[in-house]
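Much of our argument rests on the idea that a fold can be written as discrete symbols. Part of our work consisted of pairing the sequence of a single chain with a tokenised description of its backbone. No coordinates are needed to read the tokens, only the vocabulary itself. The record that follows shows the chain in one-letter code together with its fold in token form.
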Amino acid sequence: MTSTDTRPARPFGAVGTAVVTPLTQDGHGIDLDAAQKLAVHISEHGNDLIVVSGTTGEAPALTDVEKLELARAVRAAVGPEVKVVAGVGTYDTAHSIDLARAHAELEGLDGLLVVTPYYSKPSQAGVIAHTTAIADATDLPVMLYDIPGRTGIPLAYETLLRLGEHERILAVKDAKGDLQQASRVMAETGLAYYSGEDALNLPWLSIGASGVVSVVGQVAAEFEKQMVDAVDRSDLAGALEAHRRLVPLVEAIMSRLPGAVAAKAALALQGVLPHAAMRGPHVPADADQLRALAAALDAADGIPPCDPSRRPL
């Protein structure tokens, strides 16, 4: 397949972010206006891919109607140069197919994110059947989401080879961190890889990943784009500089709190979101956590600073 595969090297852009889902103050509804403003904001700061209803978007706590409204609103907010991909994978094949078909009816959606079925822990044969059924249900391209820390099972090497044969399965968002396995898969299939773990973005890019699907990118997309652009021009020093500027932000956002909580809090501190309401089981960051986040944002010269009126005392 390697020599004859004609799939695009970057089917979903290069600098991607799995965005938070802005909620109403009470957490009971989605703030679609804020979601659109966020989408425009991050696209203006370097993102060419937006993933909605992913892990960072609190997807398990969203209704199907909310997911569709969110994807429609974000797609309408950004231009055609920005890819919009929607998470539709669940632990139930029939439900996932229904979600995929409903999203396929939205105008201009660029693809579907299909997570490995979680909780049920099917066999690899079950994973293949589940994922293939979803990919067969629509004409939209698919990005696999391999995150065994949340799903309980990884995508095995042989499974990736099988799924890579499907004409609509184009990419893998990897939060597994097995660079050796991915190197083999990239060499033997036409699958594009996207880093799904911010701490490993540069290592992934260095072995041939097409891009990133970041959490930190919603507050520091400038640095993510600098890193991707530097790798593209074989500028290791420039890529390392961007990577090192990201390190304290990755530590603050991805290591001390759930990513969804920290990212939403950081966006509120920057004044991009009106507040940082969460939907259970997540709870908002507390005052000490907000102070630590604010300090990390303030120290990162070159990204939108904290709004002085939002900075915690």
Remarks:
- The chain is about 45% helix and 10% strand.
- The longest strand covers residues 169-174.
- The chain has a mean pLDDT of 96.
- The radius of gyration is 18 Å.
